[in-house]
Amino acid sequence: MFPSFCEDVDITIHKRIRLSPLVREEIWRLSGTRQWTIVALAQQFRVSRPTIDKVLERARKQECAPRKSHNKRFLQVHYRIKRLAKVELAFERRQKRAAQRFNKSYPGEIIHFDTKHLPLLTGEKRLLPREYLFVAIDDYSRELYAAILPDKTQHSAATFLQ
To answer: What is the pTM of this model?
Structure first.
């Protein structure tokens, strides 16, 4: 088992930890019985063999508390500035792609075109023929063109486009 002083150590556990202190103690106990190999322990606890080796090594050294990170690069200003520059560059590229997608280079390059039948006004009878609204928006100039035509045929569409 882990040494008795491990029970007195205040342990802060990360939310994504794979092996809790109790599981580590169980690994140490099972390895002491000599009936379990490192491969069998790794399969049983669903971790890699090097992880089992690290657990057993730390148990032999009687290290119970989690280790503190010695990686100081996240605390340094130049790291943060580099990270900010990368984020800004990615944001700028995304904005350019969006601008290229919607900003066109000449009139008529892309025109959004739609038709919609107009609803009956109050007091109109259903027997009257329906009228249709034709709408076109030029992506370059953002100009809107609209017309009300009596039917939704190809002749009406061609007339509207001219």
So the answer is: 0.39
